[in-house]
Amino acid sequence: MEKADQRGPNSLTEIFPRLVFLGTPDFAVPTLEELAKRGADIALVVTQPDRPKGRGRKPAPSPVKIAAQRLGLSVYQPERIRHPEAVERLLSLDAQCLVLVAYGQLLPKALLEGFPLGALNVHPSLLPKYRGAAPIQRALMNGEEETGVSIMLMDEGMDTGPVLAVQRVPIQPEDTAGTLHDRLAALGAELMCRTLAQWNAGRCRPMAQDDHLACPAPPIQKGEIRVDWGRPAQQVANQIRALDPWPGAYTTHRGKRLKLFRARPSQLNVSGRPGEVLGECEDGLLVAAGDGKAVLIGRLQGEGKRALDAQEFLRGHALPAGDLLQ
Hints:
By secondary structure, the chain is an alpha/beta fold. Helix content is about 25%, strand content about 25%. It folds into two domains: about 20-215, 3-Layer(aba) Sandwich (Rossmann fold); about 220-315, Methionyl-tRNA Fmet Formyltransferase, Chain A, domain 2.
């Protein structure tokens, strides 16, 4: 696979096609902002309709809509992108390609094939690994030491299209889904801009994915959020990191739910039962896991409360040594 051009945003090679941008959450905002910053001709920004949010359940705009309005770009919010009216509107814009980042709906064949340069997508994994809705979380849960961003030419499958460019990054021991999300969003924005300019200039060669190397990244299920203290300390820490900051892995203490954040395995050999509170140390709360090791929890959140660093949390909440988390 050819690497994207490493020259900067002022390079003469960065001539972008007229495009339609589709995206919805925070992850998509850096790519939209970077394209606008570099002078791309963005004919329209397509995002999901305003959805109820917060305690009042009032309709709230998506992060992409907020960014697009700030940038002075036209916004379109169809309920279903497959609706003939939506398809007709996008095809009428005289755009050369679609750029997608976490839009949230599968595109119909008419849109995938209706633009001369196709539909380019930012995906936060090293495709074909982690195809699906939760690639960042799954990489962390599985203890991967490396991840990255792929720019893919979309087809009708779930993240199965040919790849135009890839950039790899190491996963640090302290990384969470939140820190990795932000790093990959920024990396994806840069890589998309370079790749789109190359693709427009005919200097990018699509590489088919090897389906034999594929692994899925399905959405996180409710049953995966509760901590199983009988697992090895490294696996428990990986689970907590993968769900930090949202939705937050949880355990229970004396019948009440307790969310856990900022976790890492301790090298201490311990003799406690799985889930047994071992005590407080300078960096957090030590809890026994199922392999004779401990997990260090750096941040906790009680029911209906805000998350606090472990030392601050423990000043107002009794978690004595010997108590059992379940």
